[in-house]
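Exercise 4. Each item below gives a protein and its sequence. For each, produce the structure-token representation.

Item: YgjP-like metallopeptidase domain-containing protein (Pelotomaculum propionicicum).
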Amino acid sequence: MSILPASKKNNGSSKSDCRLVNLAGREVAYSLIRSQKAKSLRLMVSNEKGLEVVIPSNFSLDLVEPILNKKQKWILGKLAYFEQLKQQQNERKVLYRGREYEVETRVVKGTAGTVKVEEGKLLLLVPAGAEGSAAAVLEGWFRAMARLLINQRVRVVNKELNLEFNRVFIRGQKTRWGSCSRRKNLNFNWRLVMAPLQVIDYIVAHELLHLIQPDHSQKFWSLVERVCPDYKDCRKWLKTNGHRLKFWFELL
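Answer:
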């Protein structure tokens, strides 16, 4: 394992070194961070920082490389995931209702900011001098479309279930696609508007059925399968494409 010269301190409680390790024949750079607060070795992979290895201050360096080799499949998988994300970002494409659209920003005098859907393209119209507002314009439009579409799908899916609920909220949750509160309020992530209709319907059915069965027991999943027989495919789609629904704004 070779050490690169860069080294820095972080808030006086940790030190970070840039290092290299060979994983499955590939040279991988990572940041080794010694932390006084860490109790054990921790691996993190992110779009911004790549691979980070956090270790306690007294952790033996001789143990680091064997652990990285043991976890190489997970590490390389995560790195490939973010490399694919960066490639998609460079292509400036986002999803809307399950379809890929190229994003084009156009400056138009007098507009307050809006989006037009053209064949294979989302055209962002932004006011002069506010080109940096493109992401906000697109998010605002996505939220508005999500509110219309999700409320419609709640009515459609619940037509046969005939369940009583209170209100439907469209939110910006970071870790959830939807939830059902004790007050019988249904909460949905606005980013779902980027998913295919069958995936949206699955999430809607999922939250509606929590009105009957609040947990994730086998009984609950049996109810889900009865209403949404392809729910496993929908969950797989979200697992595979969920990052594209969350990181679209980095395109702009």
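Check: Residues 1-12 have pLDDT under 50 and may be disordered.
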